[in-house]
Amino acid sequence: MSLDLLYITNNKRDAKKAEDSGVEIIFIDLERKGKIERQGHLDTVISNHCFEDIKRIKNVLQKSKVLVRVNPLDDDSENEISEVIKLGADIVMLPMFKTAEEVRKFIKIVDKKAEVCLLLETSQAFCRIDDILKIDGIDRIHIGLNDLHLSLGLDFMFECLADGIVEYLAEKIRNKNIKLGIGGIARINEGELPAEKILKEHIRLGSEMVILSRSFKKADGDIKIEIEKLKKEYEKNLKLTKEELLKNKEKINDIVNLISYKRREHVL
């Protein structure tokens, strides 16, 4: 079992440094439509990436794949998806889908010219997961905790991890032999929900992808050192027993419940 690290950047130097540090996937983000409306009140980044970044980043990489997140499906999607593939995308990610019909259309447009990655982040997709998983041609599914928790009306994005929603989805996705990814992760010893506890949950759930948070860009030291810490922690956790992983899950539940409670109290 291994864990692919996804690093969001359109900077050539940072992309190459991330690759040299062990990052498997460089993430270029073209999604704009509807994002400010959904996340404008949160401390999230709306990217300024563009089509030209795909080729620039692709040209400096030797091993890492290039993943491009496009906009939700609309009348412009066919042109947009065809262009990102032409420019060198190895993986194309579809955000904010709600139906099996959207997924089927997306796969048809990609036409096996790149890997298909679905970003599962809506309550509708969650409820329709069985119909979605009947479709052939899905290579990867990444569960997006930020928008999913908003879509479900929850207080804290890691509630999806604590309350069984992610576990429910993960089991179904794994049973279809589709590569699973879950949310993002901060540097070791950082994050409201500590990164080392999240890593253990990735192992328990069979997740094979995670997005590196902004904290890796803000690292005082070399990003390579921080990634080495993360990978070392992951390798160490692979040796844990099922019982130890379940105990970690209980600790996650306690932390998440406390954070969620405090946020509700603050609102009230």
Description of the molecule:
The chain is an alpha/beta fold. It has helices spanning 12-20, 35-39, 51-60, 77-86, 100-110, 123-127, 129-133, 145-151, 159-162, 165-175, 195-205, 223-237, 242-267, and strands at residues 4-8, 25-29, 65-69, 91-94, 115-120, 140-143, 179-185, 209-212. Strands 1-2-3-4-5-6-7-8 form an 8-stranded parallel beta barrel, surrounded by 7 helices. Helix 11 (195-205) packs across helix 12 (223-237) and helix 11 (195-205) packs across helix 13. The relative contact order is 0.12. The model has no long low-confidence stretch (mean pLDDT 93).
Give the helix/strand layout:
Blueprint: E1 4-8, H1 12-20, E2 25-29, H2 35-39, H3 51-60, E3 65-69, H4 77-86, E4 91-94, H5 100-110, E5 115-120, H6 123-127, H7 129-133, E6 140-143, H8 145-151, H9 159-162, H10 165-175, E7 179-185, H11 195-205, E8 209-212, H12 223-237, H13 242-267
Characteristic key phrases:
268 residues; eight-stranded parallel β-barrel
- Write the H/E string, N to C: EHEHHEHEHEHHEHHHEHEHH
Percent in strands: 5-15%
Structural class: alpha/beta
Strand order within the widest beta sheet: 1-2-3-4-5-6-7-8
Give a quick summary of the entry:
With 268 residues, this protein is of the alpha/beta class. Helix content is 48%, strand content 15%.
